[in-house]
Amino acid sequence: MAGYDDNNVFAKILRGEIPCDKVYEDDHVLAFNDINPQTPTHVLVIPKGQYVSSDDFFSEASDAEIAALFRAAGKIARDKGLPQDGYRILANCGRDAHQEVPHFHLHIFAGCDLGVMIRPNR
Ligand code: AMP
Asked: Motif range for Histidine triad motif (predicted)?
């Protein structure tokens, strides 16, 4: 995957150039509702650092950034009461996963039966 594109939509959200429906923020993490929700609850959790994908984040981010992202995802889920009925966390990486925005993000899906885990196009 190419280098970080500073003009991607999440970079613009982080710079405050376009708005988001914020759910959570700390020193390392911003979370906001997806603009095109696939489930009743659909939150995106992103690092504030410039990481293209999960591959980039997992190899290059500091332990503090990695811990912050997963702690934040857990806190958001708990604060919304999601563990009671369940939820799904997903990260798309690259072409085959149909990653659209080249800034690493976790999706949190909840609020309905989430169906089968994946339905691949073989
Ligand atoms: P992915 O395919 O994993 O890269 O997912 C990108 C997600 O970003 C999609 O679910 C989009 O609906 C969402 N998205 C794109 N632009 C925005 C935006 N301005 N605010 C919130 N979510 C967005």
From this structure: 103-107
